[in-house]
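Predict the 3D structure for this chain.
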Amino acid sequence: MSKMNEQHITTGGMKMRMKIGIVGAGYVGLVSAAVFADWGHDVVCVDHDAEKIGRIRAGDLPVYEPGLADMVERNRQAGRLRFTTDLSRTAGELDLLIIAVGTPAADDGHPDLTALWNVVHSLKQCVKGDLTVAIKSTVPIGTCQAVSRFLNGHPGSRFDVVAAPEFLRQGTAIADFLSPDRVVIGCRTEAAKRKMQQLFAPLACPLLFTDWQSAEMIKYAANAFLAMKISYINTIANLCEQVGADIQQVALGIGLDRRIGPAYLQPGIGFGGSCLPKDTQAIVALGKDYGVDVSLFREVLRVNREQRGRIVQKLADRLGGVQGKTIAVLGLAFKANTNDVREAPALDIITRIVQAGGEVVAYDPAVNMESLKNDFCFTPAADAYQAVTGADAVVILTEWEEFHGLDLQQIRSLMRHPLVIDGRNLYAPHMMKQHGFHYVPVGVPEQEVAEAAATTV
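Done. Predicted structure below.
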């Protein structure tokens, strides 16, 4: 076994200005491009979508992420960051090319690598000299090996392929990039190792150097574990509702155990977004390919789907069915501080309400609701107060800070009936009771909600 195939942890080395290309002007690509440019590198971000590139040049980013628009514009003005649709004109001048294109789930659960291989084929045609290629897209185990074999398949090819999985959380991506727990890098040569050390020199965190396959697996294993933790706490929350326990106290009690920790122990409506569902499906598909029992992760996905149905059932139980009822939905994004609705639980919940005969009025402060209203059959509202006017119930599905500051007295006066199903546990039960609401959080029996309110009167 070579030295570079051994697991190895080190810290960053000396900083060097590089010419960096990033293919993919989506969430990961834009954040990476902005931060690397902010570090002083010359960065070009490439995307085949001419309309998207035009919007970005005009200051209209396709993704919402706190602080990202300002960072992009600052580095564009400084000349360190530019955007193009033409990879061939820039690839030959680069020190490093990062692939950050989407790898969505196919029908069988495997990632669809069409976009990635399109980039790889283009590279082979337009680059003749040395080039380090870092794959930041989430890819199946064995992808870096296959890409290296393809790119170096003829004499004179000198492509150094690196696995560089990302661990950014939407809504906190810039902070995550600048203060990561670790950076994982899979590579096979000392030259690639040195280049990645130079690239990440500004970070004060461990650099974990592994082989390709281990780096690729770390990404999937990490996300599948987080998905499992969310389904776990939601299962415990559902038990709490039946046995008379309070999930907030239970989560605190188990989270204080250092072996478990408090992260991802917030009960709610389940996980969504572009990573956890897709990567957990990929683990299931991988287990099937290799004959490994991964039924644990199939259950994680099943629990996640059923958690959405529980929200609709709570509505139906308390309204005597949702047929003909008007339901106000607050929050469409899969989490706060993003406009991403990929695999968003809210859209599934809206669909279920509509299929049961309910009418939905929805509001989200960042999501483009006009682009969704026809497909999901809801009426967009200009703000939360318009959404709740005349509603038979309110369902809170995204933990936006804006919702914490709502005037609850006004909300109550605008509603037809004072039912609030809180899928994010934003409010204190006693406060909601004092404002006259029938308040239904996740993981707290209604008797406990009533008793908590009574003790504060």
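The mean pLDDT is 93.
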